[in-house]
Amino acid sequence: MRLKFLGACQQVTGSCYFLQGGGLNLLIDCGIYQERNFVERNWRKFPVSPGNIDFVILTHAHLDHSGLLPKLVREGFSRSILTTSASKDIIPIILMDSARIQEEDAAYKKKRHKREGYKAKYPEIPLYTVRDAERVLPLLKEVSYEESLFLNDHVSLRFRDAGHILGSAMLEINVNENCKEQKIVFSGDIGQWNKPLMKDPSSFDQADYVIMESTYGDRDHEDKESVEKLLCKYINETLRAGGNVVIPTFAIERAQELMFYLNILVRQDRIPYLMVFLDSPMAENITEVFLRHKESLDRETLDFIEKGKQPFDFPGLKFVRTTAESKEINNIKGSCIIMAGSGMCTGGRIKYHLIQNISRPESMVLFVGYQAGGTLGRQIIDGNREVRIHGRNYPVRARIEQIQGFSAHADRTGLYKWLSYFKSPPKKIFLTHGEKRATMSLSRDLQKKKGWNVKVPEYMEEWELN
Fold first, then answer.
1. DSSP 8-state assignment for residue 52
2. Three-state secondary-structure class, residue 26
3. How far apart are CA 366 and CA 401, in angstroms?
4. Percent of the chain with pLDDT over 90
5. Greatest pairwise CA separation for the chain in angstroms
6. Which one of 96, 102, 148, 280 is at 20 to 30 Å from 127 when CA atoms are compared?
7. What is the b/e burial string over 242-253, where b = at least 16 CB atoms within 10 angstroms of the residue's CB?
């Protein structure tokens, strides 16, 4: 049995693993790279032949786990893509939106480069098209949580709730070779405990090999009470200053969690009545998916619904669908809250709202999610005095804040909690999906405090799992 690491190695995005065993070739996740230093990998030929892959297995729908599926299919993959029921409903929304952005960005760059007389290093073509994304959809096959699915006589698969976003899963893969069975666990992205919306993450008591995320391997989040207080504080301070609160928002889970908290703050009169815009057709579509999959929601949210309350609706909230409606937000006099994608400011409508607000001292850009290295969001968080958006430089004069507790990832304490359920150490733990600093910090601690065999793989590194 062999495992090859095709992405998310000492960096956060591009999750992808190639597992060979029990007579099958399995691709675990197929994520797009979003860090500036790694985006050129998106354009490379796949390091394994798509036509030789027997199954693709997806942990969840985020683009850094699913965003290269259209390219994989275009290059020859034509078999089943296995995922959970909720992810099967979300992935078409995510991929079609991504494909449209790819096409629009390529057209915009080509037009701008021609106007500026700039000779691009790479041709201004989309990474993939809407047609490429459409070809993925018939291949999606849903698998229920906790169902044991035999992929052949030697390999079985089980999805378990990861508590990260709607439909997110951890994978338990059992491989029987040479009369010996071994269990490989892929953590996917591990969610937080005691959060609204999502159930708590699943746990395991035994595994031979664990491939585990480490995004927050070197730090902890604020607690839930701090999240509410900080959100309330930042909104009220910005309103008093006369500016707008601009929130780069991930369409899955983060947008819904923000609406959940804003609902509470508005109804408790902790923030004044004001216009709140969710400028993301994708987030609106995914909110509808949330309400169709109540089986995945936690008790707190279900109690809210059972009392006849709407968790994602409150006075002042407006869903923005069209581009024309999005542009009209800029004409509003007075303060408002603008939530728009993408969450790392790598594309989408958030860039237009940043152009309008990033240089206004009275406005605030409030980050509520992880910002990968090299992204526009990371540049702003790191304190760059000037940022480039759509080919122009803008001075950063707005107030910049971040609330870590909104993250859908477990923090350092949460990662230790997840590992604490193992009754005995796995043969090896491979740490992925984290920047080098965070991953190495967690690796050193696990080896020193627990004495566990921990490896931090390099990109394209291959291991024999004996």
1. G
2. strand
3. 5
4. 75
5. 72
6. 280
7. ebbbbbbbbbbb
Tens of pLDDT, residue by residue over 182-205, are 999 999 999 999 888 899 999 999
Q: What gap in Å lies between CA 236 and CA 111, rounded to an integer?
A: 41
Dihedral angle sign, alpha carbons of residues 288, 292, 294, 297 = negative
CA pair distance 98, 250, nearest whole angstrom: 13
Taking the C-alpha atoms of residue 84 and residue 62, their distance in angstroms, rounded to an integer, is: 13
Rounded CA gap, 204 and 406, in Å?
Answer: 25
Per-residue pLDDT of 114-170, as tens digits, reads: 777 777 666 688 999 999 999 999 999 999 999 999 999 999 999 999 999 999 999
Rounded Cα distance, 1 and 25, in Å: 10
- Domains by residue range for the chain, with CATH: 2-219+408-464 (3.60.15.10), 224-406 (3.40.50.10890)
Neighbour tally for 162: CB within 10 Å: 30
Bridge-based pairing state of the strands 81-83 and 55-57? parallel
What pLDDT sits at residue 122?
63
* pLDDT surpassing 80 at residue 373: yes
112-116, 399-403, 415-419 — which is least confidently predicted?
A: 112-116
Please choose, from the candidates 171, 187, 157, the residue with its C-alpha nearest in 3D space to the C-alpha of residue 22: 157
Q: Among candidates 159, 136, 172, which has minimal Cα distance to 30?
A: 136
What is the dihedral angle through the alpha carbons of 454, 423, 212, 55, rounded to the nearest 10 degrees? 120
Please report the sign of the dihedral spanned by the C-alpha atoms of residue 379, residue 248, residue 360, residue 405: negative
Residue 86 carries which side chain, given as an amino acid letter? A
> Which residue, among 306, 393, 380, has the nearest Cα to 343 in the 3D structure?
380
E-assigned strands of 187-256?
A: 209-213, 245-248
Cβ pair 396, 385 in contact under 8 A: yes
Residue type, 162: A
CA distances for 55 relative to 7, 125, 141, angstroms: 18, 29, 10
Task: Say if CB 162 and CB 198 are below 8 A apart.
Answer: no
CB atoms within 10 A of CB 125: 14
State the DSSP string of 398-413: SEEEE-GGG-SS--HH
pLDDT of residue 33: 94
DSSP of 35-50, one letter per residue? STTTGGGGGSPPSS-G
CB 465 within 8 A of CB 26: no
270-329 pLDDT per residue, tens: 999 899 999 988 888 998 999 899 888 888 888 888 887 788 888 899 999 898 999 999
Nearest in space to 258 (alpha carbons), one of 246, 242, 273, 269: 246
